[in-house]
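Handout for the seminar on molecular recognition.
Each group receives one record of this type.
Step one: identify the two inputs.
Step two: read the structure output and locate the region that could contact uracil.
Step three: write two sentences on what you found, then compare them with the reference statements printed after the record.
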Amino acid sequence: MIRLDKYLADMGIGTRQEVKRYIRKGQVLVNGQKVISPETKIREGEDEVSMEGRQITYASYEYYMLNKPAGVVSATEDAREVTVIDLIRDKKRKDLFPVGRLDKDTEGLLLITNDGQLSHILTSPKHHVDKTYYAKVQGCVTEEDVEIFAQGVNIGTNDEEEWTRPGILKIIKSGEESEILLTIQEGKYHQVKRMFEAVDKEVIYLRRESMGELKLDKNLKPGEYRALTEKELEGVRR
Ligand code: URA
């Protein structure tokens, strides 16, 4: 059970003060009846709430797959920059956040939700969730790099070592400019870029392809998103 004003505010109808005003003015119906008390308790999923002829269904949790475009920051709010949350135009909830961060210039799979428990499972290093990245790399990626990455790489500075866990590097194309897939289970700051720096190469394009069982939908162009399917949700929860 949830208060009517919270129900409406959670679904992005307005601030708590605004929705209280709508309710008091008689703009909100519960099961077809005008209800003017903001404290009225609503049974989510059972009571029918509507406002100006529009039914408002309650969503406790929302899950979106975004193909993050370059140039957008992985934050919930930013005074100057467009955030990944700004891109989710049909969101109901106001408490959405990105699960993990991608750099501003990185593209690809980003899960957007308000489910903190699921986010913790997917991002905590304890849970060893595979993240696979496609990258274009300046320089010739070799089998030696594959072996180095398989051992774990020191991405620290001269003063302080910082070792990654083993990563699985697959070479798609090797040459002056190489193409690779890299699977890692951590999310250290700029990890993929720093792993290639450690072998004297530079990542010039980076896209996340998958996170655990969740794969980037090839139909989503950068900047596009869709809700997760039930099947995908079961997969990420597993
Ligand atoms: N590794 C990086 O270097 N950048 C990202 O955005 C993600 C992983």
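Reference statements: Residues 64-124+216-237 form a domain with the Alpha-Beta Plaits fold (CATH 3.30.70.580). The first strand starts at residue 2 and ends at 3.
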